[in-house]
Amino acid sequence: MPTLRLRLRSAFVALGVLGFGVAPAAPPPAPPLAIAAAADLQFALTEVKTAFLTAHPGQAVTLTYGSSGNFYTQLTNKAPFDLFLSADLAYPKKLVEAGLADGSTEFRYSRGRLVLWVPKGSPIPVEQGMPALLHPAARKVAIANPRHAPYGRAAEAALAKLGLLDAVRPRLVFGENIAQTAQFVQTGAADIGILALSLAKAPAMTATGRMWELPPDAHPPLDQGGVIPSHARNRAAALAFREFMMSPAGKAILRKYGFTTDAP
Questions:
Q1: What SS3 class is residue 30?
Q2: Which CA distances in Å does 195 have to 15, 151, 212?
Q3: Cα(211)–Cα(193) distance, integer angstroms
Q4: pLDDT at residue 11 above 70?
Q5: More confident site: 173 or 8
Q6: Where are the domains of the chain?
Q7: Is 114-213 the same fold as 33-111+222-256?
Q8: Residue 162: what pLDDT?
Q9: Measured distance CA(218)–CA(223) in Å, rounded
Q10: Paired residues of 108 in beta bridges
Q11: pLDDT of residue 80 exceeding 70
């Protein structure tokens, strides 16, 4: 009897070696797609990601938001991102010029817009436009840091063009990025802010605030774009996400948040 059992066990082992009766190994999961994204994309890109995952259910995506200038610096040191979505197309172009990104993957996904934003109960008459910045209640004015945030540079340029920069400068408070700038005004750390339209259009912002949109010619164009770094570990998924952003479904989500997706 023991001899029969040994023979049967040997037979099953042999069948396993030959591939009979053994379930095929599951393919390894796709590595996460790591995206470095400008802070003005915070709400829109979350929705784009949800729609993208519906079409690519096996693909994990991690989104990291921050200032485009800081991401550019990190990417020059080969930070582990597969896709860079910048609030200023100049940063992706600089990576391509330095040989740190694939020029064939560079693309423009939007032109950003600026708004003045105040909480709903604020006495500041934001509907009057830029003169609202001179209201006595506008003791602190929030903008993104112009040193590394494209929306901060655009805000500063708009103030200068409209002759308000010298009057407002002593009252400026700087957010590390445009999302933190919005938080300053939401929490009362600032009285009024010059924010991205894409953030002001988020449900939480529209429910709690009032805004006025700056004219497009008040500042240099905020052309926004992306690129795939040369050191990307998940190029295939980055290309797929890029393609989805530029598809009709992706563009519809971006337009919902105030991004201009038409050609300049």
A1: coil
A2: 67, 8, 10
A3: 10
A4: no
A5: 173
A6: 33-111+222-256, 114-213
A7: yes
A8: 92
A9: 14
A10: 225
A11: yes
The DSSP 8-state label assigned to residue 41 in this structure reads G
How far, in Å, CA of 82 to CA of 30, rounded? 13
pTM for the model: 0.83
Q: Which architecture does CATH list for 33-111+222-256? A: 3-Layer(aba) Sandwich (3.40)
Q: Any alpha helices (H) in 63-219, and if so which ranges?
A: 68-76, 90-97, 150-161, 165-168, 178-187, 197-200, 203-208
Task: Report the b/e string of 173-207 with b at 16+ CB within 10 A.
Answer: bbbbbbbbbbbbbbeeebbbbbbbbbbbbbeebee
Q: How far is CA 117 from CA 15, 48, 97, 263, in A?
A: 71, 25, 37, 27
Residue closest to 39 by CA, chosen among 165, 166, 177, 238: 177
Mean pLDDT (the chain) is: 90
How many other C-beta atoms can be found within 10 angstroms of the C-beta atom of residue 23? 5
Residue spans of beta strands (DSSP E) within the chain: 33-38, 61-66, 83-86, 107-112, 114-119, 141-144, 172-175, 192-196, 209-213, 222-227
| Amino acid at site 184 | F
Distance from C-alpha of 59 to C-alpha of 31, rounded to nearest angstrom: 7
Q: Which residues pair with 65 in a beta bridge?
A: 37
Q: How far apart are CA 80 and CA 72, in angstroms?
A: 12
Beta-bridged to residue 34, according to DSSP, are: 62
Domain 114-213 - what CATH class?
A: alpha beta
